[in-house]
């Protein structure tokens, strides 16, 4: 169950980054399945195509999203940025005296991404 949720989250995030690079039909299928939780059968009925055709189209779309990520790495960079922001905020929220150099270092790393 957790793996399915992780895959759904990954596809949704990749779609946010690269969805505009897909064909209109691929965009519609991804949106209906991953964002509106329609089943393959419901999508097939909507488009008057077979369930297998929906499955194939969706798989091609997801593979295209993964190829875009392999080449452009926007999601990977986003994750690195997010982790650095969390680290920075945890420093700021802690009651410890924070060294300016630590903060400058993290901000510099973020700037260079």
From TrEMBL:
InterPro entries for this protein: RNA_pol_sigma_r3/r4-like (IPR013324), UPF0122 (IPR007394), UPF0122_fam_protein (IPR054831), WH-like_DNA-bd_sf (IPR036388)
Domain of life according to the entry: Bacteria
Gene3D superfamilies: Winged helix-like DNA-binding domain superfamily/Winged helix DNA-binding domain (1.10.10.10)
Record family assignment: Belongs to the UPF0122 family.
Function according to Swiss-Prot or TrEMBL: Might take part in the signal recognition particle (SRP) pathway. This is inferred from the conservation of its genetic proximity to ftsY/ffh. May be a regulatory protein.
The name this protein goes by in its record: UPF0122 protein D5R97_07685
Provenance organism: Candidatus Syntrophonatronum acetioxidans
């Amino acid at each position: 169950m957790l793996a399915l949720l992780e895959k759904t989250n990954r596809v949704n995030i990749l779609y946010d980054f690269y969805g505009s690079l897909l064909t209109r039909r691929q965009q519609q299928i991804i949106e209906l399945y991953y964002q509106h939780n329609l089943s393959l059968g419901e999508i097939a009925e909507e488009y008057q195509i077979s369930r297998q055709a929906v499955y194939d189209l969706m798989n091609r779309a997801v593979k295209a999203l993964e190829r875009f990520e392999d080449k452009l790495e926007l999601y990977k960079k986003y994750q690195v940025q997010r982790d650095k922001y969390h680290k920075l905020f945890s420093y700021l929220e802690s009651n410890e005296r924070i060294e300016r150099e630590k903060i400058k270092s993290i901000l510099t790393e973020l700037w260079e991404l």
